[in-house]
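Bug #77: duplicate submission created two jobs. Keeping one. Sequence:
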Amino acid sequence: MSDETFNIEELLVRILANRASQEEILYFSKWIEEGENQVYFEKLKKLWNLSAGGHANQDMLIAGVKDYYRFMENTLKPKRRLRLIRRIASVAAVVAVALTSVLWFSRTRENTPVKLKNEICQTGGIILRLADNKEVNVLDDSLQLTGGTGGSVRINRTNQREIVYEIKDSLEMTGEMELAYNQIIVPVGERFSVRLSDGTKAWINSESSLRYPTYFGKDCREVEARGNVYFEVAKDATRPFVVVSREIKTEVLGTHFEVNTYGDRGEISATLVEGKVRVSVGSRSVIIEPDQQFIFNTKNGCINVVKVDALNKVRWKDGILVIDNEQFDDVVWKLERWYGVSIVNETGLVFNQSFSGEFDREDIQAAIAAVCVNLNITYTIDKDRIILKR
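Kept job's structure:
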């Protein structure tokens, strides 16, 4: 058997997680007999056990990572080291990035990085643009506002990250009534949610916006989304809920779904968690089921529907960024948007490893440190810029 038969990066993770098949265990038993593979695996297993166990404190974790690096940098012979590092770098990334919730380690030599957390994320503020074009920073201002229609709609802030539209009085919807639109604009590094007047809740991700009427008309509920927005739509059989977002339009009666129009790699998408939706691009439309993702390629106009773990895709609304077997450049884009920073690669190297893991929105230092540990590089922080170095 060869590495073409088994992906060694994924195999080692399954071995450590006790998820390997009998055939995989057989291959692993042969792989570990070769050269320094056994020593490497023992070092990796030690780091895995330290990070996964509740007994490990920060000092133990740091010591484990240092021990791992001493082996990688000093024990292996130069030629063997280069070959082995290329072969196993991806599994190291998978292991350590997956454990960033407990691994807090920095290899920066110049100075001790300061905690960024929310300091750089909240500088721009989250803007609520009202129907009269007045702009309110919902993070700073106390909201006691009316949303239109003679004061019949009130906007309340239920917590630091959510506002709610409430219809105070009986509001008769007539076809002649002019709708009043509000818009929430969320900068990089932030997230926010809004409960619309019909009971629909929307989570608005970093660098995204949602434009919506303060109340809906009698025939249709239509909103406009930019960037990444997740919806839990209140059921109303008489009024379809329509999300217009760049080239695609998503129509539902009551369901949970996400639209993503960031346009990374020239793709925009709609992902369904619950219910059923029709997604349209021009005259073309597709009905998707739960755990399916509609993908539209803006470069060639192609439409594709793929199977996904939809709940995992939308965990950002709960403050968790999920990285799922993604390339270095894609990880950088996501981290920049998630934390509101700029990441500059000054190593002169091209990284081809794939990463998987979960990042809490508060722990930017852990996220960057984990990536750097696995690439055997360092980093420095200059205000809101993170500079990757050899």
